[in-house]
Amino acid sequence: MKLGIVGLPNVGKSTLFNAITNAGAEAQNYPFCTIDPNVGVVTVPDARLDVLAEMYNPEKYTPAIVEFVDIAGLVKGASKGEGLGNKFLANIREVDAIVHVVRCFENTNIIHVDGSIDPIRDMETINLELIFADMETLTRRMDKTRKDMKSDKKLASNLELFERVYKSLEEGVTARSLEYTDDEAAIMEDVRLLTYKPVIYVANVSEDEVSDSSDNQYVATLREAVKDEGAQVVPICANIESEIAQLDDEEKEMFLADLGIEESGLNRLVKASYTLLGLISYLTAGPKEVRAWTIVNGTKAPQAAGKIHTDFERGFIRAEVIAYDDLIACGNMNTAKEKGLIRSEGKEYVIKDGDVVLFRFNV
C-alpha cells in the first residue's frame, strides 16, 4: 500500500513525513527505512504477530508495511506545472490513496502561507489543483472516446460518464464524491483521476489538544466539510509524532500514557488507511517466519496465495486455515488439529482477516 502525503507549506506535512521516516521498519527486515529521498516505510501495527512470534520463536518476523510518499511541490498553479507541479502530478498518480495534511493549530511563530488558519480554504486550494489536472485528463479522454465512437457505438455510455464527471469537476466537486455503478467504477479506475483517489484528512493539531476527547473548532469544521466525500479525519500532532519516533517501545508506552493517548497518531493513520482501502491481513506462521500479508477484503484463497508467490496461485490445491483466535485458544497447531479446528478450504474460499493459513500447491 502506497499513500501520498500532500499539504500546503507550514501545515506540518514535512514534520509528519520526517516522523514517519524516523519510525521506519525494522532494519533487519527492510534495510532502508527511506527507499528514496521522498519515500518512508513503516510497519503495520498488529498485536497478533507478536503473539504468534512468542508461540513459534521464528527466525524472521515480517509485518505488513505501508509506504508513505512525500509529495512535494504543490502550490497554486501546480496543475499548470507551476513550482514542481509536473513532478507532483506524476508522484500522486502512483499512490493508492492521499493523506491530506491540514493545519488545525494556532502558532504565531509559524506563519501560514495565506496569512491565517483556515482548514477549509487550505483543503480547497489543493483540491482545486487536483480538479484542474483531472479536467485536462478528462478532456483528452473525451476527445479520444468521441473519435473511437465512430467505429464503436458502445462507447457512448463511457462518454456520458466522462461528461457527468467533468460537469461535477467544473462545479468544484471531486470525482470520488459521485456515485457509480460497478461498471462505471471500473472505467474510472482506468482513467486514474486524482480526485477519484480515496483520501484521509490529517488534522494537524497542537500538543495541548492532542489528548482532548473533543475536536477543536478547526477539526470540527473540517469533519463537517468532508462528510459528503465519506472521508475520514484523523487528528494528529505532527510534533508529538516526531518525539515518539525517537523512543523505544517501553519509553513510547510511557510517553503516550502521560499524554493520555492510547496509541500513536501514526498507528491510527495506518489503521484508517486499511479501512479506507478495504484491506485486511492474513497470517502465516512457523519456525522460519511469522508474517502478515495484505490483501483486499473479499480475496479468494488462490489469489491470496499468489501474494506469497505466483506459483502458489498457479498450482493451488487447497488452503489449510484456522482462525487466529482459535489457534491462540488451543496454544498450538497440534491441539488445534486434534480439535478439528483446522479447515481444508478450496478455490472459492474467501480469506478472512486474521486467518492463519498454510497453502498447499503443486507446479
Helix content: 40-55%
| Protein structure class | alpha/beta
Beta-strand content: 15-25%
Number of strands: 12
Query: What is the succession of H and E elements?
Result: EHEHEEHEHHHEHEHHHEEHHEHHEE
**Number of continuous helical runs:** 14
Low-pLDDT regions: 25-35
Report the biggest beta sheet as strand number plus sense, adding barrel if it closes.
6 strands, mixed
Strand order of the largest sheet: 2-4-1-5-6-7
How does the overall form come out from the CA principal axes? flat
Mean pLDDT level: 87
Radius of gyration: 23 Å
Gap from first CA to last CA = 29 Å
Name its key features.
363 residues, 6-stranded mixed β-sheet, 3-stranded mixed β-sheet, 41% helix
Walk me through this protein's architecture.
This protein has 14 helices and twelve strands. The protein is of the alpha/beta class and about 375 residues long. The strands form three sheets. A six-stranded mixed β-sheet has the order 2-4-1-5-6-7, with helices on both faces. Helix 7 links the parallel strand 6 and strand 7. It is flat. It starts with a strand and ends with a strand.
SSE inventory with pairings:
Layout: E1 2-6, H1 13-22, E2 39-43, H2 47-56, E3 60-62, E4 65-70, H3 85-93, E5 97-103, H4 119-148, H5 156-170, H6 182-191, E6 199-204, H7 217-226, E7 232-236, H8 238-244, H9 249-259, H10 265-277, E8 279-285, E9 289-296, H11 301-306, H12 310-314, E10 316-323, H13 324-330, H14 333-338, E11 343-345, E12 355-361
Parallel strand pairs: 1-4, 1-5, 3-9, 5-6, 6-7
Antiparallel strand pairs: 2-4, 8-9, 10-11, 10-12
